[in-house]
Amino acid sequence: WHNFQSIKDLTEFISLKLLVDFRVYHHGYCFLRCKNHKGKHISQLLILPPVLQRAANSSTKAFSRPLLNINILLLDSLSRHHFYRMLPKTISTFRSLNKNFFKMGQVFDFNLVQAIKGRTWESLQALFAGKAASPFDTFQKPVDLNETFWKFKAYGYETLYIEDMCWLWEWGLVKEQKALKMTAPLSVRAKLFLDAVKRAGIDRVDVSYTSCPILKANKVNDVFHGPDAICYNGFHQHIYLLQYMEYFMSRFSFLQKPAFTFLILDTAHEDTGIRVKQLDQDLARHVNFLANQPNTVSFILSDHGNTYGRFFSASSEAQVEVFHTSLFVIVPDQAAVLLGKSKMRSLHINQHRLVSLLDVHHTLKGLLPSDELIRGQKLKYKVNSDGLLSPVSPNRTCSDIPRIHPNLCICQTYDRPQQNNSYYALFAEFALGHMNRKIQEQQTDTKGPCKKLVAARFDDVKAREVGLNEIIATFSLYVRTYKTTGHTEEGFVFLGFERITPYSIYYSCANPFVDIRLCICNTQAENRDSIADEHHGQLLPPSVIWTNTTSTAVHENCLYLLKRSYSSGVVLAITNVCSEMFYYVHFDFFTKNLYSSCEMPVRVTILPRTETLLVVGIRQVENQPWKYKYNLNYSTQ
Prior knowledge:
InterPro entries: Alkaline_phosphatase_core_sf (IPR017850), DUF229 (IPR004245). By secondary structure, this protein is an alpha+beta fold. It folds into two domains: 66-400, Alkaline Phosphatase, subunit A; 417-636, no CATH class. Helix content is 27%, strand content 22%. The chain has 17 helices and 23 strands. It has helices at residues 7-18, 80-86, 88-101, 120-129, 146-153, 173-176, 186-199, 211-217, 237-254, 280-291, 310-314, 316-321, 333-339, 341-350, 357-366, 422-442, 528-532; strands at 29-35, 41-47, 69-75, 106-109, 113-114, 158-163, 231-232, 235-236, 259-265, 296-302, 324-325, 327-331, 416-417, 455-467, 470-479, 550-555, 559-566, 569-576, 583-592, 594-596, 602-606, 610-619, 627-636. A hairpin with a 3-residue loop joins strand 16 (550-555) and strand 17 (559-566). Helix 3 (88-101) packs parallel to helix 10 (280-291). It is globular. It starts with 6 loop residues before the first helix and ends with a strand.
């Protein structure tokens, strides 16, 4: 802190030092603090333009035409539909620019943008790395920003990454770059973060640092799930960040130094879907600013829709909306001239083609002045090497986009609705068994808080053939809440799940090692132990309640084989109802006209008070008889 005795001294310091003296380094802001007449400290946030000196030996390479500045605004958790619902002033500004302002430029509105996944981490990986992660990747590796940021740095670009999250908490850039070590001293954490930022090719994070004191003033650690507004000094947090972006772009444009700028706002990441409305007027004004940046191409996009509140679980249409994201590209007149008619025509055509963030990734590379980086490049996915700057195939389907499941295609006829019959009940059984197995694996304590999922019903079944004897089925599986809250080569693959009802209430009782999306537990702490032992010595409740479960004793009164029969197949599971016994089970399954859900034989340890799915057998040929037999052996510990 600098101490000043008068407002005059403070004004001179800001005017003569912070605003013009490049030797006084700052991150684009300062806090002003004083005492009121009651002796209470009052603080104010002041956003400052970056102080830059135009170096005589600038590293920017010489090119025959000016380098285009690239600006990206990512609005987390905002679908295309909800963008139109909640940001009408911004939409009106887009239309006004196209009708009354631009002569050669345009705001392009891409109608068919398919989300890669309903989560930010995978979306950033697609946007910046041009990769689709595995369906079961969590946060094992950092988001690969190098593929984009370092490519632009090689051409002399200054790179800026701004976020509204606090780097001292568990979300945002610090987590995405695997630089999070909550228990370490502050100096160690700062070094981890700065080293990760540098490795990623980010020159500046600047006003991102204001997020920590702003969130602290709002008595939250992050912006997820509330409060209703994030404010400081009577201004929304996003106003400060947008203001700095404008200062930054204006200053770099004046110095004719190319810049790659990125801002992510999490305003829409909350349960009600209402908070994002606060962004509308300020974003509309910001869009007008972007339209007046002659050498800047701006992308306003989202990663996925809202997956947190009651809307997501309200209807199948709401669930599809999550994967229908927004993408607007603002190309001012001068930038349009630099791009040329062919690329502008391609952008116009592609507004009505099926695209994704992978196309945006290659578009960014295509905006560089040389095709050196993309010439001869072998692309893993069916995308143009210059992304949206060339026409996308009109025959593209969701099969051409590496969607990470669970994921719903936004094209209406892609997945075909199916009846909720016994055939698909077997698929539901398989999915349920897989999720319950995950709970057991992640929660080694058999009396842990996260309970076995019990399925009540399933609906909204859709299926799609993807090859010979291969289909992908999706459906909504409804589970009950806890009452106080022949050897074959076939196999089933569990592609993923998403929870469509709110689950944050279970954070208070969940096992930290169990995926919170799987956990249903008792939120009343005083009753947890008694409830855990409620069924001691009895058969566990059946995993599904839409059909009967028969049980056959295998060993004494502890180990039971469970069977559920359907007209289209059979489900076999094993349960250990005793509290002290451990069983090692060897199971083999022989079939005629049945697909087996897993490779045989199955060897599994059955822990006390647990149930494990052994196999789901599903009819191969319709209207033909099927049968099976099995061998089951066990040993005890």
